[in-house]
Amino acid sequence: MEFVTMALWLSGWIALAVLIPKPSACDYGSCHAVQASIVVAAVEWALFAFTNVYAFLDVANSRRTRRHHHDQHQHQHQQPAVSQVNPSGDV
């Protein structure tokens, strides 16, 4: 879900950046404010993408570790065969 959000955020950022005028054509304060907000949004998107990669790696690693731990846990709790419990046959 985060990757979809990231893609939509990036497309919205690009659409907004295309609509504003060039810095040389900006003569009023609100235009400069929009340009500054676009720069801040780009930095924010880059940070979001960076943390998103680490979140994805953490989820992938936890699934692999959980599967390995589950297999190891089942292997430790297997019941021994009857011949292994009393190999000599003494009662």
Summarize the model shown.
InterPro entries: Marvel. The protein is mostly helical and 91 residues long.
Separate helix tally: 3
Q: What is the CA–CA distance across the termini? A: 61 Å
Quantity of strands, as a count: 0
Poorly predicted runs of 5 or more residues: none
Binned, the helix content reads: over 70%
Domain MARVEL: 1-51
Signal peptide: 1-25
Subcellular location: Membrane
InterPro entries: Marvel
Descriptive notes:
The protein has a domain at 1-21 and 28-64. Helix 1 (2-19) packs antiparallel against helix 2. With 91 residues, the protein is mainly α. It contains 3 helices and no strands. It is rod-shaped, with a radius of gyration of 29 Å. The longest helix has 48 residues, at 29-76. Helix content is 77%, strand content 0%.
Blueprint of the fold:
Layout: H1 2-19, H2 29-76, H3 82-85
Helix pairs in contact: 1-2
Region (Disordered): 65-91
Subcellular location: Membrane
InterPro entries: Marvel (IPR008253)
What descriptive keywords fit this protein?
0% strand; 91 residues
